[in-house]
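Q: Hi! First time doing this. I have a protein sequence and I read that you can turn it into a structure. Is that right? Here it is:
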Amino acid sequence: MNIDEWKSQIKRGTLEYSILLMIQAHSSYGYEIINRLNEWDILSAKESTVYPLLRRLLKEEYLTSSWQETAEGLPPRKYYTITDTGRKYLDAMSVEWDNLISAIKKIKGE
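A: Yes, that's right. Below is the predicted 3D structure, encoded as structure tokens:
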């Protein structure tokens, strides 16, 4: 395995968590989420990755969505909002994330 494959594995494991964290902070639309993820190389993702993930999170009832008109006269945007079930799921993910980071730091001797 090379470093690019390893980074891809990390991304798969953290993309869902990152998206839920973003949406918890404020309701967001798909293109906005993609642009925010693209601020960091390790999290950068394409539409073909993000939109199916958003659909799955909707299906699992971790998110809800609503169409909102834009002030600029552009087509309406589909905004995603985290549900109570999604918050509970995110809380559980955060506990596991913190446990993982703690373990890695200990292994590294930090």
